[in-house]
Predict the structure.
Amino acid sequence: MVKNLFISVISQKEANRGSVEFQVFSFTNKIRRLTSHLELHRKDYLSQRGLRKTLGKRQRLLSYLAKKNRQFMEELIRGKPMNVPATREDLMIVNMGPHHPSMHGVLRLIITLDGEDVIDCEPILGYLHRGMEKIAENRTIIQYLPYVTRWDYLATMFTEAITVNAPEQLGNIQVPKRASYIRVIMLELSRIASHLLWLGPFMADIGAQTPFFYIFRERELVYDLFEAATGMRMMHNYFRIGGVAADLPYGWIDKFEGVGIIGVEEAINWGLSGPMLRASGIQWDLRKVDRYECYDEFDWEVQWQKEGDSLSRYLVRIGEMMESIKIIQQALEGIPGGPYENLEIRCFDRVRNPELNDFDYRFISKKPSPTFELSKQELYVRVEAPKGELGVFLIGDQNVFPWRWKIRPPGFINLQILPQLLIGEMIIDTPEVQDINSFSRLEYLKEVYGMIWVLVPIFTPVLGITIGVLAIVWLEREISAGIQQRIGPEYAGPLGILQALADGTKLLFKENLLPSRGDTRLFSIGPSIAVISILLSYLIIPFGSNLVLSDLNIGVFLWIAISSIAPIGLLMSGYGSNNKYSFLGGLRAAAQSISYEIPLTLCVLSISLRAILDIVEAQSKYGFWGWNLWRQPIGFIVFLISSLAECERLPFDLPEAEEELVAGYQTEYSGIKFGLFYVASYLNLLVSSLFVTVLYLGGWDLSIPYIFVPEFFEINKAGEVFGTTIGIFITLAKTYLFLFIPITTRWTLPRLRMDQLLNLGWKFLLPISLDIHDMFPMVTGFMNYGQQTVRAARYIGQSFMITLSHANRLPVTIQYPYEKLITSERFRGRIHFEFDKCIACEVCVRVCPIDLPVVDWKLETDIRKKQLLNYSIDFGICIFCGNCVEYCPTNCLSMTEEYELSTYDRHELNYNQISLGRLPMSVIDDYTIRTILNSPQITSE
């Protein structure tokens, strides 16, 4: 019924070709043509695929239109019908990925928008497909193990586990208890590391930047344990058939709500697994269901939620990390002794008479033979990976290579539901002298002298403002570095104070690009208007009792009027870019600025009806307790929030966030024009802090309790020049102390969505600012949002406590190469080769995943013994899996701690036996060995 209605409407109005209805009509005609074509050409698989895609798109559009039509009818039933003028509804198609920052090069989304609502989404996958299944069918299990860690960089232990579990079940191999405990510990540590790396970018996507650094700090602790046990931080190659590669080293053990809802039936029908399934109310965890390894020996609970939204999936992952810690603690306390690998897996050896140079030639080694065959069976093996069910379907054919190896990746399956989740949501839910008297003695330079003194009053404020902005940028970088436990700028000048100036100079010399079909005049004028409108605000700021550039009687309202010009510059910038995304971003930025100008104006209405100098004098009459901060605390809070929104600072930096996605008014800008927008942001932040100091913090008044102020520094008793200097110093000191609040807020709170941002401005701050002098309406307004206000205040307080508690801690980052990492004893770096020990058995070649070592030898027929001629390894290709070292029967290969192998010449990375035989740098640097090597006896020899 709905479909026929829309199609009949479209047949009458085909001019609106951008509407949703016309898209449905065109899809219907396309389906008819494809159906007629397939009746004659039934084996045209490409047309069949196109038909399925078109049917899916049309069905999603019909679902959206049915929902939209139903909402419209309900609104008509509740109210009186009105004659609404017909508007043209053009669809907007947005391409996100695969080069988008949030796509990471592996996913592309083609999103169809109706305004800001997502009505269709087509995910395109497969950008990282590298034929892993076919590689497995042409490698032995030992050769293939180093590959599997590339399936999922975040859960490498799980990919190794599923690779060895399949042949273990084919051969009915028992894993020793100690090896099983070690596996469980490694798997749960990998689960924690995977969830942490999900949580960090998730928080960064919603604007919370600081937790990203905290999470990486904790994740590095897990990777330190991995490196100590396996020798590598990510590509471990640790699991083996029948156990693990090595025992644990000595001392190792001591060492959003209502968004994207998925129902129970939907989760099951789409084949979801992992946290996405458990967040929809289904208690399904393969560790409980299949009881693999030794999970049934530990006390832990399956984490699940009922709501099925993004907040539930967040809570499930947080809970799983807590449960993983419980499992690891129990495993560490109860880990038994015994072997770490089942050495009886020689039953897999192929029964064939070995020859000298045959592939099956084996030596008595410290490890079992890597050449075993898989029995003629088929089975499906699965584990509970961090993202869900990771499975492998394996078919053996009495060969050392698998006949079929099919991978079931959890992320690929879970992404299938993405179009259904996005439909109906907003896109924001989906990224710094020569003596002047000589001039007076020259008669012909008197005019130049006079012109310079005319320009001094102009350049002095500009220079002061520039220095002030550079100081804010440097201060913000230092504060953020302290909060995030990292090293801030420190090499560009003392303490890095010249870094901001260097960044500005770099933008100054960058190329300015102009859109080909944009409005060049509007495109060039927009950034200038944004900066000039803010610079004019400095005219009325009193820096001292006798220092104000323009003492006007209209007070702070001139600042509000001038700052209202800035949104015009944003609109001009977006419109002049000839980019619909930029124009949409400019509209949003202007809407945000206008929404918060009104409460900002109203909250200072009573204190700004006099001259701005009189405001400071009125506060200084009563000392510290006469500051307007104590007279109007609610007004101060509203002014603070509104000023942060005006400056587009977190949590109100939605325009910057849109620039990272697909929109943003400065998307098409580059060079100095791009830098002007950020200069305008910091200029606005400085002028807002100055107004807070003047309006609420007493300006240049220094009457602070419990702080003794000598009479020498009292402005009223000092001279005119000295008193003005003291007033400027006190005003700027208060301003920069207040700047700690917006800077700390930026690195503490997450970002607000557009709807949340507008609701906060119009529905919360505006009523409070209207009734700021009448306590009863103000209290009533707080009661309407009582629970939300208390909850938000509690969360904000907890967030500030966390970030401020980290400010005094030492940084965890290092400066390379001045501070080098100390690697573990098992670190897999450059390979060291001992020529005299090698017997040219070529086992290293057979176990290498890419047949990398080159062994040249000749056979001495008299004694039937191989003589090694040359041995080389190309480190430009080597993945440092350690198989050659592990399976070498004579221990002629070993891994060193050297990890600096960069070179300007590609061929220099191909090491021969002489380069491979060089002692490691850690050994050469040892004082005892260096003394022995430099002794006279060795030198004479």
User: Anything to note?
Assistant: DSSP finds 37 helices and 15 strands in the chain. The mean pLDDT is 76. The CA atoms of residues 96 and 400 lie 43 Å apart.
